[in-house]
TrEMBL record:
Keywords: Dioxygenase, Iron, Metal-binding, Oxidoreductase
Lineage, highest ranks first: Eukaryota, Metazoa, Ecdysozoa, Arthropoda, Hexapoda
Pathway where it operates: Amino-acid degradation; L-phenylalanine degradation; acetoacetate and fumarate from L-phenylalanine: step 4/6
Homogentisate 1,2-dioxygenase N-terminal domain sequence ranges: 9-280
Cofactors (names): Fe cation
InterPro entries, per database record: HgmA_C (IPR046451), HgmA_N (IPR046452), Homogentis_dOase (IPR005708), RmlC-like_jellyroll (IPR014710), RmlC_Cupin_sf (IPR011051)
EC number: 1.13.11.5
Similarity remark: Belongs to the homogentisate dioxygenase family.
Protein name according to UniProt: Homogentisate 1,2-dioxygenase
Domain of life: Eukaryota
Organism expressing this protein natively: Nicrophorus vespilloides
Pfam families, per the entry: HgmA_C (PF04209), HgmA_N (PF20510)
């Protein structure tokens, strides 16, 4: 695939203490202290806090940015009326049905829509004011943000591109994120998305906590998503004295303000609170090599934990290409009723439990205790297939946002997008009675 990215370099590690200086300004990072009376090169020092000052050391997140001007120099914010972001979870009556969306529309070719204008909330729960909850959005855009920068005061964005490469300028430097890669841009970090084609993807927003790598327990010290495969940008500033717009997502609404310079004017920075990206192809898959279907938590890339031990406000789980070797086992996902909510998306190919109907760029939602599982065709085939070792999910990538919260579907998700498939329930209708009363059916 032709990419528009120049060769971008990154630093490797998850949540590490990084430091980076734009090579055009050697010595721009103050030595031995954060706030010198005068910073090198006449820069301003600014701290970005991603945790309470007093959070335990392992959870303490902050970065120091050395920038041409401090972020405070901007005109007042006013409401920004574009896009379909909402945190009004009462727009629709609750609906426990299994839901499936056909692929969400790419933007109308006659209009220019950027990443922020192209954000639509599908479902969610909770409230950023109380730092509790999540929102799931679909973005669909065809234009770059130009002199616009966005930051989310409410929480963190985990962005999953499905079509189109995103070139993301951040205060920390540049990232290029393609389908089958993801990135996380945490609370408060300013960024600008450039695209050169129709682009679409999914966003998981968490209000309360940051994403962490799951514990590995008996798996040991290595496996699943390895920390060294997470990539953080290198400092790269621009010095532009032209009008820029800053868009803030604050308490579920968008606001815009103007300033007379680029916000991407960070010459050097250090800290452990940064944006990062991850290539899903680097996921080290661990699974049963004897029998039975393991729970999909074995495929957790990142988790955002609730206060309740082991219970996620949101897990980001993938279904990567892998070997399937289990003996005397029904190998696809089992039939399931879950106390958690399961929102699934498809980046590429087909999902093993539903080879028809669930399409790349579409989604499903199986709410709390809503029964779901393999469709009729999958069940019939997998009950009879010879159990040889075989590759599954080759050339595909499905994923799940799993949450302990009950998710409410928005008006956009239910109605405006016009993608909800009323026929979805039919995929389980062919599951007939096989019971004969005799042990050997
Ligand atoms: O398709 C789903 O519903 C997701 C899922 C996958 C799996 O392998 C086991 C349980 C589960 O909920
Ligand atoms: Fe499930």
């Amino acid at each position: 695939m032709q990419t528009m990215s120049e060769k971008i370099e990154y630093m490797s590690g998850f949540g590490s203490e990084f430091s980076s200086e734009d090579p055009r300004c050697p010595g721009s990072l103050p030595k031995g202290q954060n706030s010198p009376q005068k910073c090198p090169y006449g820069l301003y020092a600014e701290q970005l806090s991603g945790s309470a000052f007093t959070a335990p050391r392992v959870e303490n997140k902050r970065s120091w940015l050395y920038r041409i001007r401090p972020s405070a120099g901007h005109a007042p914010f006013e409401p920004f009326q574009k896009g379909n972001i909402t945190h009004n979870w009462d727009e629709q009556e609750p609906d426990p049905n299994q839901m499936r969306w056909n692929p969400f529309d790419l933007p109308d070719k006659t209009k220019n829509v950027d990443f922020v204008e192209g954000l639509n909330t599908v479902c969610g729960a909770g409230d950023p004011k109380c730092k509790a909850g999540i929102a799931i959005h679909i973005y669909s855009c065809n234009s770059s943000m130009g002199n616009r920068a966005f930051y989310n005061a409410d929480g963190d964005f985990l962005i999953v591109p499905q079509v189109g490469e995103l070139r993301i300028k951040t205060e920390f430097g540049k990232m290029c994120v393609q389908p089958n890669e993801i990135c996380v841009i945490q609370q408060g970090m300013r960024f600008c998305v450039e695209v050169s084609e129709d682009s679409r993807g999914y966003v998981l927003e968490v209000f309360g906590q940051h994403f962490v790598l799951p514990d590995l327990g008996p798996i040991g010290a290595n496996g699943l998503a390895n920390p060294r495969d997470f990539l953080t940008p290198l400092a790269c500033y621009e010095d532009l004295d032209s009008t820029h717009e800053i868009i803030s997502k604050y308490q579920g609404k968008l606001f815009v303000c103007q300033q007379d310079h680029s916000p991407f004017d960070v010459v050097a920075w250090h800290g452990n609170y940064t944006p990062y990206k991850y290539d899903l192809a680097n996921f080290n898959v661990i699974n049963s090599v004897s029998f039975d279907h393991c729970d999909p938590s074995i495929f957790t890339v990142l988790t955002c934990q609730s206060e309740k031990k082991g219970t996620a406000i949101a897990d980001f789980v993938i279904f990567p290409p892998r070997w399937s070797v289990q003996e005397h086992t029904f190998r696809p996902p089992y039939y399931h009723r879950n106390c958690m909510s399961e929102f699934m998306g498809l980046i590429l190919g087909q999902y093993e439990a539903k080879k028809g109907g669930f399409l790349p760029g579409g989604a499903t939602l199986h709410s709390m205790m809503t029964p779901h599982g393999p469709d009729f065709k999958c069940f019939s085939e997998a009950s009879e297939e010879p159990l040889k070792p075989c590759r599954v999910a080759e050339g595909t990538q499905a994923f799940m946002f799993e949450s302990c919260l009950g998710l409410a579907v928005t008006k956009w998700g239910y109605d405006t997008c016009q993608k909800l498939d009323p026929e979805y329930f039919k995929c389980w209708q062919g599951l007939k009675k096989n019971f004969t009363g005799s042990k050997f059916a």
